[in-house]
Design goal:
The structure holds 2 protein chains of 2 kinds. Chain A is an alpha+beta fold. Chain A has one domain: 2-Layer Sandwich (Beta Polymerase, domain 2). Chain A contains 7 helices and 9 strands. In chain A, the strands form 3 sheets. Chain A has a 5-stranded mixed beta sheet. In chain A, strands 6-7 form a two-stranded antiparallel sheet. A two-stranded antiparallel sheet of chain A has the order 8-9. The longest helix of chain A has 17 residues. By secondary structure, chain B is an all-alpha fold. Classes of the chains: A alpha+beta, B mainly alpha. Chains A and B meet through α2, β8 and α7 of A and α1, α2, α3 and α4 of B.
């Protein structure tokens, strides 16, 4: 499958229909919030016990996992890919670089949905939680995104 | 090293904690705030639906790789309206 052939809506529909608890994080979450940022990849944080279901859901999109679910659990992350590249976090909790624990269940509880099309919702973390996910590593682009998110949030408040 | 791997290596480098903290703690100037909010307002006006925004970013990324990508920072800055 060439990159131009990727059916993005079908990809998100498959995840939605699977019922897997999957949060879109990373820069595509910023895009859905209305920030124009460039990105190559998709980033998800999914429930740790739903790896196999997630893999099955995206398999028709010709996305295939790089490791089996048990390895993914041990590593805390894995990739499904073809010409597209999808990073998947599977940890129950991750600690930010400055020591703040962030639990998947807490982030999931505060999520909100963006509707792409009838029957196709994408689950996003709350903005403050999305900012926390950007502190899992101190990469320059993550810090830049935090500043963008802070400004966007300030613009949303009355 | 293929192109994606090269980008990823640049993209995944981490800053020293002090440098990261200094960046995050730097106050937001009014000019920066206005620029970001104007860019977001343009993006949301030009591409009012989530699907349009996702599609635009795929197109923009493909264009960026064709033109600037090989020599540009992998940090992939916010899209400038001039590229649309």
């Amino acid at each position: 499958m060439r990159a131009g052939d990727f059916d993005e809506l079908a990809f998100f529909r498959a995840i939605h229909r699977s019922g897997v608890r999957a949060l879109l994080i990373g820069r595509r979450a910023l895009v859905l919030l209305g920030l124009p940022v460039l990105t190559a990849d998709y980033d998800f944080w999914i429930a740790i016990d739903e790896i196999a279901a997630f893999n099955a859901a995206v398999a028709p999109c010709e996305l295939h996992p790089t490791v089996d679910p048990e390895q993914a659990k041990r590593r805390g992350r894995y990739v499904v890919e073809n010409d597209e590249h999808v990073d998947v976090l599977v940890a129950r909790a991750i600690t930010t670089v400055d020591g703040v624990p962030v639990a998947f269940e807490d982030v999931w509880a505060h999520r909100w949905a963006v509707t792409l099309a009838p029957g196709v919702d994408v689950q996003l973390p709350a903005v403050d939680d999305l900012i926390l996910t950007k502190r899992f590593a101190d990469r320059p682009k993550d810090l830049e995104d935090i500043r963008l998110l802070r400004i966007l949030k300030s613009g949303l408040q009355p | 090293m293929n192109e994606r791997a090269g980008f990823a290596r640049l993209d995944d480098r981490e800053l020293e904690p002090a440098a990261a903290r200094a960046y995050l703690d730097a106050p937001t100037t009014e000019a920066e705030r206005e620029e970001v909010l104007a860019l977001a307002a343009w993006f949301q006006r030009r591409y009012p639906t989530p699907v349009e925004r996702l599609a635009y970013v795929r197109r923009a990324y493909a264009r960026w790789r064709r033109t600037l990508g090989a020599g540009a920072s992998a940090s992939a800055p916010p899209i400038d309206r001039s590229t649309s």
